[in-house]
Design goal:
Elements (H helix, E strand, L loop, with lengths): L1 H15 L4 E5 L5 H16 L3 E6 L11 E5 L10 H5 L2 H11 L2 H7 L4 E7 L14 E7 L6 H6 L22 H13 L8 E4 L11 E3 L15 H7 L6 E4 L12 H11 L5 E5 L11 E4 L4 H5 L4 E6 L3 H9 L4 E3 L6 H11 L2 E3 L7 H13 L1 H15 L5 H14 L15 H4 L2 H31 L1
Parallel strand pairs: 1-2, 1-4, 2-3, 4-5, 5-6, 6-7, 8-9, 8-11, 9-10, 11-12, 12-13
Helix pairs in contact: 2-15, 9-13
The protein binds 2-acetamido-2-deoxy-beta-D-glucopyranose.
Pfam families: UDPGT (PF00201)
Keywords: Glycosyltransferase, Membrane, Signal, Transferase, Transmembrane, Transmembrane helix
Family: Belongs to the UDP-glycosyltransferase family.
């Protein structure tokens, strides 16, 4: 009996799935965003869909089955400093993408993609155009929900407990924080349209069914390190273990500033643990327990039993991978959404937040000691790691399910909130409250006058 049921189910599955054309656009992303999308592309390909995947980076080795890569070389200075990113970079990137002719080529294709997945970084200039080459769109978002996405999805966002993307606030805010938070949210408004967003976020907040959370999609159990000097360095670290230092893929190690570099150098000379430091060029005067590397398999190193602490910049992937592997962290947030993540880390008690512009070597040493020894922090790290891993199915399955759902139901417009049809006055019910206030005033005035009249009448008698 069980067999029959399985078979019937399988047949239905076969009928239901067809091979679709899917486009993934990640033209301007740091590598940390590709890491999140790679497993989605791979799983879609293995299910028989044809995936065209545009990204500045290619897969290590060959692309997965049914995935066609377009390696798109973006404007290079992206990888300089954060200041550069915000200058005139945005328009330059868009111009370059238009000049590449890719969008025009897809627009001229007879057959459209069934769905276009667009990374949310700097892609506003693609959003008005995706209809030319796609039936529906899904936004891939690797950070807290920004005002543009909130607006596009008409997502209820109570400013009272949803911190703005770049602020170091938690979901519990003081009056002044709520004041600043509200000003930031209401002063950043964008308008656009889409069918579905995929996202992940820390704090409980209202969502609509158009937001699918796939946090931790890039995390996977660590595999043993290949034989190498790095592996030997780690395994010879004894009971003291080792510390990993990486400030992410956007910014090269040398851009973190003189103060932090020299404080770290001095601090590392005073600790027993070994240190692996992701750094692109040479640092002079390092103590013997420190090794710099240009690249390393971060997930596998974080999963090594000898790791004690992860020092990072508060980037979402780093914070999540650290939590996944139950590693306490020390965050030096530098820009963008990093302060928000760093404050969440210290707020949850799973790590420590420090200021990279003023930190001293003593602070670093004492933070490393606390992060590697404090039993309370260990308990919190274990607890929140379990919470983080506890999903009904692997996040990649969730992502692929919803991507197929959007294709199956032609953009799944039935999931869209009616809030999009309302203007701000209607949405915040200002018209309704206004009318209620008016009625109350009228009734109050009438009452007042009639009481006055009655009193006068009786006084006159
Ligand atoms: C690639 O897609 C085709 C259908 O388009 C499918 O038959 C095939 O199994 C897929 N390849 C792999 C390796 O999954």
């Amino acid at each position: 009996m069980a067999k029959t049921i399985t078979l019937v189910f399988l047949c239905l599955q076969l009928l239901a799935t067809s091979s679709e054309e899917i486009l993934i656009l990640q033209p301007f992303c740091p590598k940390s965003h590709k890491v999140v999308v790679d497993p989605i592309a791979e799983t879609l390909g293995s299910k028989g869909h044809h995936v065209t995947y545009l990204s500045p980076f290619s897969y290590e080795g060959s692309a997965p089955a049914n995935v066609t890569e377009i390696v798109y070389h973006q404007y290079k200075p992206y990888f300089a400093t954060f200041q550069d990113i915000w200058r005139d970079l945005h328009s330059k990137l868009c111009q370059q993408l238009y000049d590449s002719g890719l969008l025009q080529k897809w627009t001229n294709n007879k057959k459209k993609f069934r769905v276009v997945l667009i990374d949310s970084v700097f892609t506003e200039c693609i959003l008005p155009l995706w209809r030319n080459f796609g039936d529906s769109v899904i936004i891939l978002n690797s950070s807290p929900l920004n005002p543009m996405i909130v607006k596009m999805l008409n997502l209820p966002t109570p400013y009272s407990h949803v911190p703005y993307i770049i602020h170091p606030y938690t979901h519990r805010m003081s009056f002044s924080q709520r004041f600043v938070n509200t000003l930031y949210w209401i002063s950043s408004s964008y308008v656009a349209e889409l069918s579905q967003a995929i996202s992940s976020f820390f704090y409980p907040r209202p969502y609509l069914p158009t937001v699918i959370r796939i946090g931790g999609i890039q995390c996977r159990p660590a595999v043993p390190l290949p034989e190498s000097n790095l592996k030997k360095f780690i395994e010879d670290s004894g009971d003291d273990g080792f510390i990993l230092v990486s400030f992410g893929s956007i910014i090269n190690g040398e851009f973190i500033g003189e103060n932090l570099i020299s404080a770290l150098k001095t601090a590392f000379a005073h600790i027993k643990q070994r240190v692996i430091w992701k750094y692109e060029s040479e640092i002079t005067g390092l103590s013997n327990n420190v090794r710099t590397v240009k690249w390393f398999p971060q997930g596998d190193i974080l999963g090594h039993p000898k790791i004690r602490v992860f020092i990072n910049q508060g980037g979402l992937n780093s914070v999540q991978e650290s939590l996944y592997n139950q590693v306490p962290q020390i965050c030096f947030p530098m820009a963008s959404d990093q302060p928000l993540h760093a404050v969440a880390v210290s707020n949850l008690g799973i790590g420590i937040q420090l200021d990279y512009t003023t930190v001293t070597a003593e602070e670093i040493v004492s933070s490393i000691n606390k992060a590697s020894n404090d039993p309370e922090m260990r308990k919190m790290v274990e607890y929140y790691s379990k919470v983080f891993r506890d999903t009904p199915e692997p996040p990649v399955q969730t992502a692929v399910y919803w991507i197929e759902y959007v294709m199956k139901f032609n953009g799944a417009l039935h999931l869209q909130s009616a809030a999009g049809d309302l203007n701000s006055i209607q949405y915040y019910l200002l018209d309704v409250y206004g009318l209620i206030l008016l009625i109350m005033l009228l009734v109050g005035t009438l009452l007042w006058f009639s009481i006055k009249k009655t009193v006068k009448y009786f006084l006159l008698i």
